[in-house]
Amino acid sequence: MIHVKRIWQSGHSFWRRVALMIEFFYNALSLVFGWFAMGNFYIFFVILTNALAGPEFHLKGISVFNTILQYLYIAALVACFIFGLGNRPQGSPWKYRIVVYFFAIITF
Question: Which of 25, 26, 27, 79, CA to CA, is 20 to 30 A from 61?
Fold first, then answer.
């Protein structure tokens, strides 16, 4: 991404350069959304679980359960970050499987 100006210095045709620039902007936008994706998922999870605490659902004690799940969600995100610092997923696949299963269960 740093060397995007080199596309215009290459020997490609004009339309190929335009296509490469479109692909560059698509990849840059995808990178930005990728950085904020986990935060967006967490915000959606909080909004969804807080909506379940509404009086129309008649679920007693759901706010305590939601708070526990929200803290566990944050703990799982932090655990993924810490796991990623230390090793590759092939080094300890059971750690990642536990977190993935946890995310799958709370998403369901």
Answer: 79
DSSP of 66-98: HHHHHHHHHHHHHHHHHHHHH--TTT-HHHHHH
The amino acid present at 101, given as its one-letter code, is: Y
Cα end-to-end span (Å), the chain: 37
Position 82 in a domain:
yes
CA dihedral 2, 8, 9, 14 (to 10 degrees): 150
Q: Is residue 65 part of a domain?
A: yes
Question: Tens digits of per-residue pLDDT, 40-81?
Answer: 888 988 898 888 888 888 888 888 888 999 999 999 988 888
Domain extent for 56: 52-108
